[in-house]
Design goal:
The chain is of the alpha+beta class and 186 residues long. The protein has one domain: Alpha-Beta Complex (tt1808, chain A). It has 3 helices and 10 strands. The strands form 3 sheets. Strands 3-4-5-6-7-8 form a 6-stranded mixed beta sheet. A two-stranded antiparallel sheet has the order 1-2. It has a two-stranded antiparallel ribbon with strand order 9-10. A hairpin with a 2-residue loop joins strand 7 and strand 8.
């Protein structure tokens, strides 16, 4: 007689309850991905610099046209609440104080990848596409490039482009935010 192994999938609500109960420590870096809690790796100095430089650039360029969120939770569905490195969000008068942003609030998600490149370009790309995040960028620190995914279709994106040093790009939904790729590559 074979026994079946079953997994308990967590929801966003479960995670909030675990946090309130002290099961998840304050400041503990976790993401809810497909119902599983994943511990996030510590970031290195180059990763941090890339996020900070991207944040600074987007805040200057977006002005009041978008909210730039840094390593904050977005609730894409009941089983998925990642904490992307950068997110450009639709403006909200309360700056999402009453609820975390959802997929329909997102203009752009940016993940900075060093050791996480394979994960960010496979699992995360698939999740963002399925949940219809309109545009997803991966800063590839190892190869000094920016990978841009646009137009979600099922579990992938219709278009993928790579940009390198010396090039500029703007999010499709925020064309006024023309930013140099070098900003993300310290």
């Amino acid at each position: 007689m074979a026994s079946e192994i079953r997994r308990k999938l967590f929801t966003v609500s479960d995670c909030y309850r675990m946090s309130e109960a002290g099961i998840l420590a304050p400041g503990e870096r976790v993401e809810l991905i497909r119902g599983e809690l994943l511990l996030m790796s510590p970031t290195g100095p180059r990763h941090g610099a890339s996020v900070d430089r991207g944040n600074r650039g987007f805040v200057r360029l977006a002005g009041d046209n978008a909210i730039v969120r840094v390593q904050g939770t977005v609730e894409l569905d009941m089983f998925c609440a990642p904490e992307p490195d950068l997110v450009l969000l639709r403006p909200a008068a309360d700056f999402y104080a009453k609820k975390n942003p959802s997929g329909r609030d997102i203009f752009l998600v940016v993940e900075v990848a060093d050791s996480s490149l394979e994960y960010d370009t496979s699992v995360k790309r698939e999740i963002y596409a399925i949940l219809e995040v309109p545009e997803y960028w991966v800063v590839d620190l190892r190869n000094d490039r920016l990978i841009v995914y646009r137009d979600p279709a099922g579990d992938s994106y219709r278009t993928t482009h790579e940009f390198g040093r010396g090039q500029t790009i703007a999010p499709q939904l925020l064309p006024e935010c023309q930013i140099e790729v070098d900003v993300f590559l310290p």
